[in-house]
Design brief:
It contains seven helices and no strands. The chain has one domain (2-134): TerB-like, CATH 1.10.3680. The protein has helices at residues 7-22, 29-42, 46-54, 62-68, 71-86, 93-106, 110-134. The radius of gyration is 14 Å and the shape is globular.
């Protein structure tokens, strides 16, 4: 679905994922891998990927990114923010606070946000189960 966004929205989406991943002051391998995966799915031009990587030390403000995103883009960013936050196995308080800000800007109610968290939990559980097929 990210591919349905404009290129400007895709860039803003990726920059938001960096902001979410770095909010706790620590970028871990799993978060970086998820951001790289998102950029790949977004089919960002290699130069744009470099621009996103350059924001690792100085993330873009989420409000600026949210202004660029369409309504659908904002909701995709919310979903992916929860995914990125969960990929290291823990939700930091700062990540949760940022996710709530994103949800508020996107006009997403708490019950829908809860469903997103549940979906992410199920997603990661299925992903972990798939490791059994490989090993």
């Amino acid at each position: 679905m990210v591919n349905d966004l404009t290129m400007e929205e895709r860039l803003a989406h990726a920059q938001m994922m960096v902001a979410v991943a770095s909010i706790d002051g620590e970028l871990v391998l799993e978060e970086l891998a998820m951001i790289e995966s998102i950029m790949g799915k977004s089919m960002l031009h290699p130069e744009m990927r470099v621009d996103v990587r350059n924001t690792l030390n100085h993330p873009v403000e989420i409000e600026k990114c949210m202004e660029i995103l369409s309504e659908v883009g904002q909701k995709l960013a919310l979903r992916d923010a929860v995914l990125v936050s969960a990929c290291d196995g823990d939700y930091d308080k700062k990540e949760i606070k940022m996710i709530k800000r994103i949800a508020k800007i996107a006009g997403v109610e708490q019950d829908v946000l809860s469903k997103i968290y549940q979906w992410v939990e199920e997603y990661w559980q299925l992903y972990k189960e798939s490791i059994d097929f490989i090993q």
